[in-house]
Every structure is written in structure tokens, then in C-alpha cells.
Amino acid sequence: MQASFTFTGTPETYIASRGPDVPILFFDPAASHTRFALFQSGFPGLVTYAVKANDTSEVIKNLYMAGMSTFDVASPAEIARVRDLCPDATLHYNNPVRSIREIQMSVQAGVVSWSVDCISELEKLIENDATGEIAVRLHLPMGGSAYNFVEKFGACPEGAVTLLKRVAQAGYQTAMTFHAGT
Fold first, then answer.
1. Is there a contact between 49 and 65 (Cβ–Cβ < 8 Å)?
2. CATH of the domain at 83
3. Which of 30, 72, 74, 85 minimizes the number of CB atoms within 10 Å of its CB?
4. Is residue 161 part of a domain?
């Protein structure tokens, strides 16, 4: 964000008085805390924030202060941003394609969860001493999605079995995942 200010009224009245020509983000830290607490109270599993949804420092730091401790990062820039703002946060790197340099940087940054959908990406993680959990990303059949993410990533059932066996053989914690868009 470029500027921060406080105003009275509602976002609607502010926009009406200024016009819609300049993009603006209205951020309410208290509302963010409340929504996070509500979601967490109704979901017994691990809640992970996808940084690509909104990578502004204000949002990340606010969620961290509200108790969010796990972040899904999709690039070295997102890893660096979260590490800078939340040094002890848990990082999951679920983009299934990474360069060797990205893997090495991510290992140094303490990433503890990864995803793969092919053997070559898995072998890169093994060869570069990735630690923690490796989830195999599944290729799911399409059914009403707005965008066909199946064409982008995901292992077929036979490939997933092969990958899961290799993950276990290499000594990693195994898991399965899929793209939420499917």
C-alpha cells in the first residue's frame, strides 16, 4: 500500500466523495481479527493463509498478530516478506514447480511443507535437502470450476501412488493435496 490514513464514515461515502478513479484498499484490523477467530472456531484443522491472496504487509502482520502462524507461500518474494514480518511463522511452499535456487533458498528460510506432482520435482527436493512434509498434488476431474486448473498441475492416480511411495521411501512425511480451484 502506498499511503495509510484514517477517515470517518463508510467506504461507500469515501468513494462517493472522491470518485472511483483511484484504487483503494480499506482494511479494518479488528474485522480481520474477528473473521479469523470465527473461521478458526468453526474449523478444527490447520488454518493456512495463502499470501498470494493479499500480500500487503498490513494484512500479513495483522493475521499473524491475530494468531495465524502458518502461511502458504508461492515464491521467494513471498517467503522473504513473511519471514521479515513473522520470523517464526511456519511456511508451506505449495507451488509444485520450483528452480533449484528457489528450493535452496526455501530450505534456508525454513520451509516445512512442499507439494509435487511429478518425479523430477520430487527428486529436486530430495537432492537439495528439503525437510518436512511433501504432499502429492492430485489431478482431479473437472466439475463446474470456473477455470480448468487440472490442465495446469496435478498427478494422475497411478502417478500419485508412485510419488507417494517415493516420498515415503526418501523419509518424508507424506500427504496429498489438490488445487482448491478444482
1. no
2. 3.20.20.10
3. 30
4. yes
